[in-house]
Amino acid sequence: MQVQDTPLVRKLGAFVALSDPELEILGRMHGRPRSFPAGVDMVHEGQVKRSAYVLASGWVCSYKTVAGGGRQIVDFQVPGDFLGLRSLLFRTADHNIEPVTRVEASEVLISELIDGFTRAPRLATAVLWAASRDEAMVVEHLVSIGRRNAQERTAHFLLELGARLTLVGLGTQEGYACPLSQYLLADALGLSAVHINRVLRELREAGLMSFQKGRVEFHDFAGLVALADFDLAYLDHDGPLLK
Amino acid sequence: MQVQDTPLVRKLGAFVALSDPELEILGRMHGRPRSFPAGVDMVHEGQVKRSAYVLASGWVCSYKTVAGGGRQIVDFQVPGDFLGLRSLLFRTADHNIEPVTRVEASEVLISELIDGFTRAPRLATAVLWAASRDEAMVVEHLVSIGRRNAQERTAHFLLELGARLTLVGLGTQEGYACPLSQYLLADALGLSAVHINRVLRELREAGLMSFQKGRVEFHDFAGLVALADFDLAYLDHDGPLLK
């Protein structure tokens, strides 16, 4: 794959118009590709060896567990996302990262990141933008669990995934392929799998969307956006701010 | 105040051993000091003029509102924290920032940030570290609301604030001055003010901590840490990783 076509470049290109030297540095970040099977943690909480990855294909989830054994999924990562960027800058990983599907990802070393920032400081700003966007999504998940009802938070979440996938060429306003089980959705949204099932049925019967056979279909995109009060601004997708 | 004594430098110094040129750039980030009164938004959601600040003194909260009028406080910021870093890199602010007390803050321009990164790339990594740490705190708030009971989440939150304030010289394991009302705590923790009041009484009666007259006092720090299952690792305070 040409570096211009990688999901990471498509994503960062939404913030900064990338120059050839910047593209070359990003290309090198794809230089250590590895495969990981579904269901086996790539990074676990408390791990001292710091590793970060750029996800090239497949889906992963990042989660934390609490003392009683409960688990909270913080977010899912899709192609073009960094995995474990916090782990790279912290002494120990503060969360777990588990592939939801088989994934292809390239390891990014901290030395490589700092070297890239030295040679192309605008890339540092672009990576900070991507990290800020990741934080903005976690903020929305906090607002959802704290203040949105089950229908609103489910719709908001599936719209957010759609917007992220569209940015990297893997979705449209019609829908997207989605490998998530109702159990995974439940752990992310603070609902039970039974409750998720009921909410998805309600959304389908209302003619807004369906999620069946690994595919999310938006039947009434505007109606779903209105239900969820979904405002794309926090994903900042309006084209390069830095020319 | 000497730049070495500013909360921002104390905080970033926990990640990178700062050189004189780096200190000079951080000093310049304090070059546009302004005062803001309590209770008036400094930044509001949807605002197009992008402004970020470094907080020199006082406390602020960042929050989002939802369609029904509810509000979720995402975090509080204390001296040394950036305010609105996401706003700076996004086209529109995605949250509101309101001073809890009178605050002193210096505006940071995006041009200044990029210029600083160009001249001192390690600063870019340090700012990315600070942003990652901000995200790690939001993640903990999500886990708290999703998976921790009222006592655990209140204790976790007040321990986190203590650790952050200790890093910048404004707290110890004995306690810290805290201007937050029970209403603000309630909006952050997804509890009612009445519930917060009861939880604080329970924690006091258990001999763990008290929060009275604007001061949090830890009476049994280790016991409180055990109750909350509080693991400091996500704040990454172990001294400079980059020498």
From TrEMBL, chains A, B:
Q: Which GO terms describe its molecular function?
A: DNA binding
- Keyword Transcription regulation tagged: yes
InterPro entries reported in the protein's UniProt record: cNMP-bd_dom, cNMP-bd_dom_sf, HTH_CRP, RmlC-like_jellyroll, WH-like_DNA-bd_sf, WH_DNA-bd_sf
| The keyword Transcription appears for this protein | yes
Domain (Cyclic nucleotide-binding) ranges:
33-90
Q: Which Gene3D superfamilies match?
A: Jelly Rolls, Winged helix-like DNA-binding domain superfamily/Winged helix DNA-binding domain
HTH crp-type domain span: 148-222
This protein's name: CRP-like cAMP-binding protein
Q: Which GO BP annotation is one of this protein's?
A: regulation of DNA-templated transcription
Cite the entry's keywords alphabetically.
DNA-binding, Transcription, Transcription regulation
Record's SMART domains?
Answer: cNMP
Pfam families attached here? cNMP_binding, HTH_Crp_2
